[in-house]
Description:
The protein has 474 residues and is of the alpha+beta class. The chain contains four helices and 28 strands. The protein has a four-stranded antiparallel beta sheet, with no helix packed on it. The chain has a four-stranded antiparallel beta sheet with strand order 2-3-4-5, with no helix packed on it. A four-stranded antiparallel beta sheet has the order 6-7-8-9, with no helix packed on it. The longest helix has 118 residues. It starts with a helix and ends with a strand.
Amino acid sequence: xxxxxxxxxxxxxxxxxxxxxxxxxxxxxxxxxxxxxxxxxxxxxxxxxxxxxxxxxxxxxxxxxxxxxxxxxxxxxxxxxxxxxxxxxxxxxxxxxxxxxxxxxxxxxxxxxxxxxxxxxxxxxxxxxxxxxxxxxxxxxxxxxxxxxxxxxxxxxxxxxxxxxxxxxxxxxxxxxxxxxxxxxxxxxxxxxxxxxxxxxxxxxxxxxxxxxxxxxxxxxxxxxxxxxxxxxxxxxxxxxxxxxxxxxxxxxxxxxxxxxxxxxxxxxxxxxxxxxxxxxxxxxxxxxxxxxxxxxxxxxxxxxxxxxxxxxxxxxxxxxxxxxxxxxxxxxxxxxxxxxxxxxxxxxxxxxxxxxxxxxxxxxxxxxxxxxxxxxxxxxxxxxxxxxxxxxxxxxxxxxxxxxxxxxxxxxxxxxxxxxxxxxxxxxxxxxxxxxxxxxxxxxxxxxxxxxxxxxxxxxxxxxxxxxxxxxx
Length: 474
């Protein structure tokens, strides 16, 4: 009986093992099929990858074949721009000569009419009743037209660019300033001034006040250190992008997304002049040190120089191939600096409108560029957080600092030129020590930092936030 029971148990086990073996065989077959499927899929993926690699190589070769042509076209473009500038100068010279000849002709005609009474004296009644011949009529109309043109020229007289520039006062200030650079700024106060992001902050050249511009179309005069609003300016029909004080501090220039530049009288808060001519949003504006000219840069790839006295555009600067994001006059000079989304910086002669030099090195759109107070160095920042320093005398790059990937929105030097501040898209204010190369960070913004500027004594720092507030650091 024992043997029969064991035999039955063994048969049951054998049957169980056979079922397990059959199931394992099925699983093995299924796994082999999946393996073959994935192997085929892998081969197909490798083939597609190889095909894409070959396509990329072909595209690179195709692009490389176009590079010489693009380079030649670029050189031709620059040559044509230079030729255009020379032609414009020759045209202006010819216009000046024609104007001189017209003045000479006018004086000759006046002299002729002055001597006429000596030859023949005609009574007034006879003059009035005498018939007027075609020659006399033509001369009279020409004289009247010449008088009207002369009156028009006198009434809209253009300003002259200064030839003997005053020495840069910042040169002496920088030499006298022997105080060590300051980096231990602490968040002191927060002023809530705008309903939309703050786009620009500018400090008054002589008084303890600042101007804040916002995307809510409003600019405000703010008293320091309390932050009380002294004056509010309304007039633009779209967001404000930039502002700049007149050298005397009694006027303000603002630029806007409504394609205009406006000048304001700060004693009353009234708009005294509006410049129209750009076809797209105006990003930046700046005053000449003489106070007679305002320059602006725009999304339409051009910059313009406006004459405050004749109230017209004196010159349009062509050369950039993308949006011109910032513009600034070299201290006490006729040289302009522009930065563009085409990844280049350009230096222009404001008198001729000619591009004197272009600087290349950024790999992304340049958002802002500025001079040191002494004017010997340029700082620029781009859309990926890279800040570059350039030697303006040698027109060569000095150093590149990457604090990305958040964009650098604005850069500004302190009055000593020893510290460079950068407002970053991640809300951090980066302070660069130009002597040691160390980078200090100011943390306190809750969102994106759009603008940053130092007070004139360097003891306070002001930064504008996308939440409509201004933060003071001291």
